């Protein structure tokens, strides 16, 4: 049977190239040239910096029927070598299982393995620094960039060990800036980078790079309906936070976090309206300070603590200063206040705006370093 053809159309003649015949080059369009350039950039960055990404395996101690301890594999994550001394930055939650008498093992790009020790941890920013004793010839540090100047839409590259698949590269863009996520200890981590570069379990602690190969963030979390895989929403701790925290961890073993000395704060929007009227409180914003540590910066500045009262089935406070502002900005949550204070250093002065009765006051507080017992 003759082949079917469109009415009025003529079958095109096909000329196949003979084996070994050179095929004429395709003329590249501007878009194709740009794609080639972007592809080459991905290749170059991976070749140069993937050797600085490590796999981190953690073990914890469990006990058998006879209460004898034995090691149990607790999970894996990623990390980035940051200097020739063997220091590696990763997430706190990657190393946390090993804090209970467990161990950390780091695998380098050449498959060599080293036991790691913890230099310092900062649960409030989900960061930690660990160190290995490896020959300098095996270490390939990745430079840490800065946060200012980042733009939504900017290309990013993530390198990590998702599901144990070592040094996997994924690419994407910065999807948003200035996000906030909650650390495991309840503290708020601010200025988080959101990206659509695929980040999966095992990527935690790995670097998020810009097109020049600088670390602009440390991958920390994903949003997933099943809490197991990537759906295009990942978060990275920004480079400026990494610089600040890592610097302290390497120098002191802890973060020199500023200290105020207030606690027991009760949110005013949790008060029933009739209780606010009875107490003569004219605002439903901010927080009532319930404890002020003696000798603390807050105490030296004259901040007043309230007293507890029972109303219905709950406890509330009265006669304490109500904190409504910090350095001229409205305070909307305790976590937000803690995050704002974290941006300052010991010795700096900050202003608490409070309501004391019907009077609005600005109290200048000189921050101090957090005492060891309060860290």
Describe the structure.
- This protein is α+β, with helices and mostly antiparallel strands and 375 residues long.
- The chain is built from 6 helices and 24 strands.
- Strand 4 (104-107) and strand 5 form a beta hairpin.
- The radius of gyration is 28 Å and the shape is globular.
- The model is unreliable at 1-17 (pLDDT under 50).
What's the average pLDDT?
A: 84
What structural class do helix, strand and pairing data support? alpha+beta
Query: Low-confidence runs (pLDDT<50, min 5 residues)?
Result: 1-17
What top-tier CATH class of the largest domain fits best? Answer: Mainly Beta
Present the secondary structure layout:
Layout: H1 30-49, E1 53-63, E2 69-81, E3 87-90, H2 92-95, E4 104-107, E5 113-122, E6 127-132, E7 155-160, E8 168-182, E9 188-195, E10 207-209, E11 215-222, E12 234-238, H3 239-252, E13 258-259, E14 262-263, E15 266-267, H4 273-279, E16 287-288, E17 291-292, H5 297-300, E18 307-311, E19 314-318, E20 322-326, E21 329-330, H6 334-342, E22 349-356, E23 359-366, E24 368-369
Antiparallel strand pairs: 1-2, 1-4, 2-3, 3-6, 4-5, 5-6, 7-8, 7-10, 8-9, 9-12, 10-11, 11-12, 13-24, 14-17, 15-16, 16-20, 18-19, 20-21, 20-22, 22-23
